[in-house]
Amino acid sequence: MPGFHHDFLNSLKGETERESEDESDHQASTSQTEEVNPVSEVVEQIDLQREVEETETEAGGEQASHEEEKDQEAAAPLCDLGDKDTGPRQVKLNSYPEDSFGTQKSAFHHSWFAKYTWLKYSVNLNAAFCFPCRVFGKNIKHDALVSSGCRNWEKALSVFSKHDMTQSHKDSVVAWKGYQATSQQGDVVQMMMSANAHEIVARRDYLKRIVAVTSMLGAQGLPFRGHEESAESTSRGNFLACMELLMTFDPFLQNHNPPSNATYTLPVSQNEMVECCAQEVTSVIVFEITPSKMYSIMADEARDGRSEQLAVCVRYVSEGEVKERFLALSELMSFDAQSIADKLQEQLQINGLAHVKCVAQTYDGAAVMSGPIGGVQARFRRLHPEAIYIHCYAHELNLVLCHTCKAVTEAVELFALLESVYSFFTTSLVNHHSKFKDAQSRLGLAAVELVQLSNTRWACRLQSINAVLQTLPAIFECLSATGSPLAIGIKAKLSMFSTIYALLMFQTLLSITEGLHKLLQKETLDLAEALICKDAVCDTLKELFFPCLVAELDERFASVDTELLKGIQACSPKSETFLNEVNLKELAGHYITDLKTGQVLVARNFIARKADAGNPSQDMLAVYNLLYTDMFPSLKEVLQVALTVPKALFDASTHKVERKFGQSRSTGHTDPCHNSDGNGGLYLTLIISKTVDNSFFHLIKR
């Protein structure tokens, strides 16, 4: 082909030269008559060069096509050997082509494939090859099984055996097997990632069960730890006992074997789990407060036997509901007003609420808390000027009853007698209490236990009076049967007409105030509604000739600024001054809210039309939810302030704190969680915040 190309170019060059000479002679002969055109000469040269290039391209194409055909012809016999993806093609025929070796004929046999799995046979070449060495081998030379193939069938088994023992062949087989494993299972990195993903799923499933037990124990207020948690102990604590119970019925726990550093059952891990769950509960509360842009704070003290704790609660409006939530428990190192105020501010900063508007603060009536100059409320108001002070109405009611009854000698004697009756029947459970129960049964009375009095919870005094009146015949029978001097003295006092009269009178009085006391604990009750209920109780007491109680209630419930109180009452649809613009603007001005007159006027007609359509507003919250934010933005903000102002401490939380501390002391645990690290405050967050969604499984993803 190169020779043909060279001869063709030489002939073409000769013809071109001859044509050039003829053209030169012609031009010389005509030069006398015509002038030579240089443009035509250039064009002709370009055309000539193009023709030469096209001729060379055609010749080169023919040569490349011829060489490609030769390569395909050489590779055609090997195309039936298979590649690294298909593996060796082990063709099994009924008969293979025979070759003569001397006087004998022999051929390839398909049974060899069973012994040598790496063997492959080419039908086109009638030759045997080593698949891994051909495809994965490196620098393998002078081996017929790799290059040209083995056709000597008489010595084939010997050739195969020797080849099978070579190190290069073994290396090729290892590479082949590795490629197969990678194709099926992925490479090493992929296999490690797959195993790691499986381990992550297993650990999360295990952690779900840990979190479920933690949240359950927290919600029920049960201690985690046991006094002895060794494997041989029968009292390993509630946490380990729950995990063992789950394992009995849970196949996953039965088959799961966590590593020693990830069992999450040690005290440190339990504390961390409690902390995570408590932080999650708190984060939900803060997440709800932040968009509402305002809240009120409530605080009370609670003793855990070792130290004084400050229970902090918050009240706010979120998603059309009034919510009161336990926020934190902080240990008090000092009891002065500045230290308590600093603790309150510290908790607000920790939980990210220091920048949110605090509209009110509520404490008990202790001087250190309520002092108008140096008290906690005064110091806290320097940091939060809008936070008006509300003396807890529940405490106010309790103080009214306490002070009034202390001023009446007959009341003091009555409650002292009730305490003596309770002590008499509970001191000796075998003799007195059992006889008391038998007497109730014999007389056909309902089984009722006597109730111990409390200096701070006057609601329990009504329960004590009711219990004595219901079981009075059984009490007299037991006292008479005992015959001791103490029993005779108690019976004599209890039989007096003045005592029976006092019991009935205080039963009536405390029954009237009990409803108000319970209502003040209602989370959704607003301050305006509380004042209406207080006025109703006062009117009832006047009818029953208790003027001293009425005067005391009016005095103590007037702690809020009069103008602000009128503004709060103007937000209630039950008030005579409902939507009074003057009163509303007094409240709005205190909280720097620009109340629009037009919104108030339109709201009156809007609410009236809703009432005519059968949708009357029953309370302040209903009015708040009825009004549209886009239409009444400033009026809704004022209503939100009125709803956020508390009427009492969040006793459902603070009392529960005290009760849980009392339980921990009674069980001998100095910490409610019975953890050495003192996670009681975080643990109590789980106990008290049952109303908050405590499905903590999404914590596992974090």
Indicate the radius of gyration in whole angstroms: 49 Å
Side by side, the strands of the main sheet go: 7-6-5-8-9
Main beta-sheet annotation? 5 strands, mixed
Structural class: alpha/beta
Q: What is the percent of helical residues?
A: 55-70%
Total number of beta strands: 9
Strand share of the residues? Answer: 5-15%
Q: What is the tally of helical segments?
A: 29
Cα shape: elongated
Low-confidence stretches: 1-9, 11-39, 66-76, 651-678, 693-697
Cα(first) to Cα(last) distance is 74 Å
Average the pLDDT over all residues and give the rounded result. Answer: 78
What would you say this structure looks like, in words?
It is a single chain. This protein has 702 residues and is α/β, with parallel strands linked by helices. Among the domains are: 75 residues, no CATH class; 87 residues, no CATH class; 210 residues, no CATH class; 89 residues, no CATH class. The protein is built from 29 helices and 9 strands. The strands form 3 sheets. The chain has a 5-stranded mixed sheet. A two-stranded antiparallel sheet has the order 1-2. Helix 23 crosses helix 24. The chain is elongated and about 140 Å long. The protein starts with a helix and ends in a 14-residue tail after the last helix. The N terminus is likely disordered.
